[in-house]
Amino acid sequence: MTFLELAKARYSVRSFKDQPIEDEKLNLILEAGHVAPTACNYQPQKIYVAKSEDARKKLASVCPCTFGAPVILVVCYDRTRDAKNRLTPGYGFGETDAAIVCTHMMLEAAELGIGSCWVGWFHAEQVSEVLDLPENVTVSALLPIGYPADDAKPAPLHTQYRELDDIVSVI
User: Domains (ranges, CATH) in the chain?
Assistant: First the structure.
């Protein structure tokens, strides 16, 4: 499968089987996040792997979109490690870096036959509180992952794209 075929085939899975992810596959997904490019290669990402029932219940208590996944990756960045934009005071690249890391892990999961759903519908402070995360760590995304349920399917708008010339301008 080419990269574009993989990117087009991947969809947000919102229903998972009650089947654990093999450690070898989980490690490959985490390695994809590990090697993702970050600004200045500062690597501010911090990924918490919520596998225990207790951790997943805590996340479900503050986020309605964990979908019963057997693993939830909490994708964060350390504000003391992210590259700062010297041309725009107060702007750091941590959120962008975390997004790139999350994308790499989603695509690796898809290649392994594991579904994922990028979730941003939560209050970061509440996630930090229930997981007792360090103060310097910012939660960027939740990534529930697991084997798609037999009835899992892409959302109706999944294959609808704006025209390329509507989103690209050559200047």
Answer: 3-149 (3.40.109.10)
pLDDT surpasses 90 at 156: no
What distance, in Å, lies between the first and last C-alpha atoms of the chain?
Answer: 33
What token pair was written down for 159? 């294959």
| Closest C-alpha to 154, from 7, 3, 1, 9 | 9
What is the rounded average pLDDT of the residues 57-84? 97
Residue from 12, 10, 4, 3 nearest 119 by CA: 12
The 10 Å CB-count burial string (b at 16+, else e) for 16-30 is beeeebeeebbebbe
Kindly indicate the confidence band of residue 143, based on its pLDDT and cuts at 50, 70 and 90.
very high
pTM: 0.95
One-letter amino acid at 14 equals R
